[in-house]
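Q: Hi! First time doing this. I have a protein sequence and I read that you can turn it into a structure. Is that right? Here it is:
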Amino acid sequence: MAAGTLYTYPENWRAFKAQIAAQYSGARLKVATSPPAFTFGQTNRTPAFLSNFPLGKVPAYQGDDGFCLFESNAIAHFLSNDALRGATPQAAAQVLQWVSFADSEIIPPASAWVFPTLGIMQFNKQATEQAKEDVKRALTVLNQHLNTRTFLVGERVSLADITVVCSMLWLYKQVLEPSFRQPYPNVTRWFVTCVNQPQFKAVLGEVKLCEKMAQFDAKKFAEMQPKKETPAKKEKGGKEAAKPQEKKEKKKEEKKPAPEEEMDDCDAVLAAEPKAKDPFAHLPKRANCWVCRPCVGR
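A: Yes, that's right. Below is the predicted 3D structure, encoded as structure tokens:
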């Protein structure tokens, strides 16, 4: 039976997969989310941590025997038992199918839609609308599959259910309001069934479904952004240092002759040409030269 430590930050839905799997398999798992065991942004940047987990990402797992793993799906798979992974080659392949489905079809649009509502990503209307359509497509596939099934693979909870539920957790908590989820009753029934299993509740606690779709909060987003420090420039010589600058500005002003009459860009180009007899002098004079305008950047 596996035994080790999972390094992560609090409420990391990716880490939840491994934690729930351990609840089912009986793996002995310690979760390090706070000092002194682990400080996100500090511990994961130390040479000791990076020697085991080169990317410095979490969740990261270190067994009591020194065995190390990164990537949440690999960790969850390792901490599972045969029943969760799929007892037959066919079942195991189906579990892998839904794990991949979560990664490719749910997580990208869920992130694009949910992250702005949490203040961790800038809002983009076009991206959000596309994400909603992609989520609908994924929900349609799940709803059809679950029409005659209680769980995704077989008759019991598997790693497929654990992975897909965790990938949809923030969707159901933040944006899938009743009117949006109404066309997908099988998905909601399955989701509620899973999150109310004792092993899920031990990790997730009570999961409340969204009542009103969360929206982007510009103020919250601004507060979440790191503040940029702008160090004040040190002036050498105080007031004396400003004098040379003032002199330069005065010289620049003196060099600028005040034009008697403002010339547009086209006239300025023509004025620079050597004077010659105008072969079209007998024709009516035009106010502006539209041909020259592209040449002078207008």
